[in-house]
């Protein structure tokens, strides 16, 4: 399995404002790059916080990329995965439409009524007691044949993936905006590290959309 975390952040490292609404931090060049990365992936993973904040669809948008996937015998868009301990994903969320297969990674704490409601729209995986155990959940995804994984946020999930040692690559578009705010989400939130900080190796630096795309490889995986 190969896990790429991709996110767009402001010049001061924020994924959004303190209102947690979806913001256009990048532009057309970066959207096209993200679409190409989606098209190369077997699955796109987000945390439930992102589903609740942004209601993303997480499909491949470009017709030619969708066509190429079909020609290769793959579905037009990769599978979508939501990490959602208690099944808070709304049943009318865009990720639950029939444009692609969707997996919901739940914990044992997800109530039965939520499981029943969500099972009509998605494949349910259970890993962890109160919170999703990411190592086990990603193992279950691998068993489904999902090898090339793209993670699209948000900050809570990204931190936990680094904590679990699951990240191979980090691609961050750093845009020409300053958002600020101590409560605005950053690239890696969660508890934060106080020691044994994950270290990265810079692989590429590319200018696009008036900002910069940084491609990092992790050292600890
Ligand atoms: N700029 C970008 O590229 C970008 C991309 C994505 C999102 N965003 C922004 O980021 C914000 C949302 O990010 P977020 O950090 O609030 O939410 P998130 O990372 O998308 O989701 C976090 C939630 O996932 C669930 N979860 C279950 N198991 C977990 C685990 N082991 N580790 C971590 N989380 C786990 C938790 O909710 P439960 O306890 O209920 O399970 C947790 O609150 C929004 O403002 C959105 O606009 C920006």
TrEMBL record:
Catalytic activity: 2,5-diamino-6-(1-D-ribitylamino)pyrimidin-4(3H)-one 5'-phosphate + NADP(+) = 2,5-diamino-6-(1-D-ribosylamino)pyrimidin-4(3H)-one 5'-phosphate + NADPH + H(+); 2,5-diamino-6-(1-D-ribitylamino)pyrimidin-4(3H)-one 5'-phosphate + NAD(+) = 2,5-diamino-6-(1-D-ribosylamino)pyrimidin-4(3H)-one 5'-phosphate + NADH + H(+)
Keywords: NADP, Oxidoreductase, Riboflavin biosynthesis
The protein's Enzyme Commission number: 1.1.1.302
Region (Disordered): 63-87
One MF term in the entry's GO annotations: 5-amino-6-(5-phosphoribosylamino)uracil reductase activity
Pathway: Cofactor biosynthesis; riboflavin biosynthesis
Keyword NADP: yes
Biased composition (Basic and acidic residues): 63-74
GO biological process, one term: riboflavin biosynthetic process
Bacterial bifunctional deaminase-reductase C-terminal domain mapped to chain residues: 2-213
Domain of life: Archaea
InterPro entries associated with the record: DHFR-like_dom_sf, Rib_reduct_arc, RibD_C, RibDG_C, Riboflavin_Biosynth_HTPR
Pfam family, one: RibD_C
UniProt subunit comment: Homodimer.
Family, per entry: Belongs to the HTP reductase family.
Name used for this protein in its record: 2,5-diamino-6-(ribosylamino)-4(3H)-pyrimidinone 5'-phosphate reductase
Origin species: Natrinema pallidum DSM 3751
Taxonomy of the source species: Archaea, Methanobacteriati, Methanobacteriota, Stenosarchaea group, Halobacteria
